[in-house]
Amino acid sequence: MENQTRFHILVLSGLSDLPSLQLPLFLVFLLVYLMTLTGNLLIVLLICTDSHLQTPMYFFLGSLACLDMGYSSVTIPRMLIDFHTQKKVISIQACITQIYFFLFFLISELVLLAVMSYDRYVAICHPLHYTQIMHWKTCVLLELGVLIFSVVYPLVHVLLLLKLTFCISTPLQSFFCDLRQLLLVSCSDTFINVLLILILGIFLGGGIFALTFCPYIIILNTIMKMSKAMRSKAFSTCSSHLTVVFLVYGTLFFSYFRPNVKDHSVVDKVVSVFYTVLTPLVNPLIYSLRNEIMKISLKRVLGSAYSKRYNDRYRGRLVTR
């Protein structure tokens, strides 16, 4: 250990080393980032301004939109800077900080998806008691539980990372600081770190996964006993949530539950783009296109804005006359 050189700066391999691709990639991901912020912010504004959307279901949806904005802001701005400067270097402290916030938003989103599954379970399986069970105090407590759990979980990993030393200048095969990739370039013994990832992944990750999907077993059983009209309405309220759940878990499982991380760097980068960049982008599209109430609310807001603009213009003409 004493003869090894310690590094305080890490190198990210990025998405591409070709100089000719840096500007096109910068413009593409800048556009994606702006669309992500716009789409999720629009959902938050709709939920805050439309009284028809001020229910527990849309309260959690607004929270998901806020998390998506934070989630994408952890990785994309840093990637845009690397495209612009073409240096792709990051300090150890900044790298660990990025890992903390990345894990915070990722775990927050996974736990919130589980809470939203419970909300759909109560709404479909116990509709007469929905307002008593999912009142605002319960929603706030569930939200606080999500935040507290999401703050503590990545803190455990970060505290162990701070004890490691890094003495290998091999680039991280990613465009952001990934926990697995960071452990690969450490010259310390990372057995405890890897063991902790495995244990927490199995027990906590498995628990969150079960809490997300198990309610849908009961939901599907209840839906099959409904009339055709009620069944269609129940499916429409669940389809958006299920689509997002399958999208998030599908990309995460494909990325993290494969052996030989070093042998799949290109594939890992492509998959990482899906769950760090594209998922926050498509979530508002899924909820706006597959949710009739959201579409009606959007049309109502756009219609009122157009009507106000038309009335102001009409009044202006009357004044000039």
Describe this protein's structure:
- This protein is an all-alpha fold.
- The chain has a single domain (9-290), classed as Rhopdopsin 7-helix transmembrane proteins, CATH 1.20.1070.
- Helices cover 77% and strands 2% of the residues.
- It has ten helices and two strands; from the N terminus they run E-H-H-E-H-H-H-H-H-H-H-H.
- The chain has helices at residues 19-49, 56-85, 92-125, 130-133, 136-161, 179-184, 191-223, 228-256, 265-289, 292-320; strands at residues 9-11, 89-91.
- Strands 1-2 form a two-stranded antiparallel ribbon.
- The radius of gyration is 23 Å and the shape is globular.
- The model is unreliable at 317-321 (pLDDT under 50).
- GO terms for molecular function: G protein-coupled receptor activity; olfactory receptor activity.
- This is Olfactory receptor.
Structural topology:
Layout: E1 9-11, H1 19-49, H2 56-85, E2 89-91, H3 92-125, H4 130-133, H5 136-161, H6 179-184, H7 191-223, H8 228-256, H9 265-289, H10 292-320
Antiparallel strand pairs: 1-2
Helix pairs in contact: 1-2, 1-9, 2-3, 2-9, 3-5, 3-7, 3-8, 8-9
User: Strand order of the main beta sheet, please?
Assistant: 1-2
Radius of gyration equals 23 Å
- Percent of residues in beta strands: under 5%
Mean pLDDT figure? 85
Count every helix, treating DSSP H or I runs of 4 or more residues as helices. 10
Number of strands: 2
Number of domains: 1
State the helical fraction.
over 70%
Unreliable residue runs:
317-321
SSE series: EHHEHHHHHHHH
Indicate the overall shape: globular
- CATH class group: Mainly Alpha
Corresponding CATH architecture: Up-down Bundle
- What does the main sheet amount to? 2 strands, antiparallel
